[in-house]
Model the fold of this input.
Amino acid sequence: MGTRTPRSFATEQPASDAETERRRIQIEKTQAAIALLTKWRTTTNLNVIREQQETWAVLQQALGRDRAISNRSLFPDEAGE
Done:
């Protein structure tokens, strides 16, 4: 049983200038988004971290309030259960 080249690769034509430019722009956008997410993930600003923790606590309370379908907490690890 040999290795086969997928048909889409075997018949692929060189990208047009417009397609090359579209890909270049998409790569730039993707790299910018990755950089922003990395910055958010690695932030060391204590005010930002504190605000995120407070926001998460409020969100947990709002999501867990009046849960008619279950008596279990949505976030047992954070609630200490």
User: Anything to note?
Assistant: Residues 17-66+74-79 form one domain. The radius of gyration is 24 Å. DSSP finds four helices and no strands in the chain.
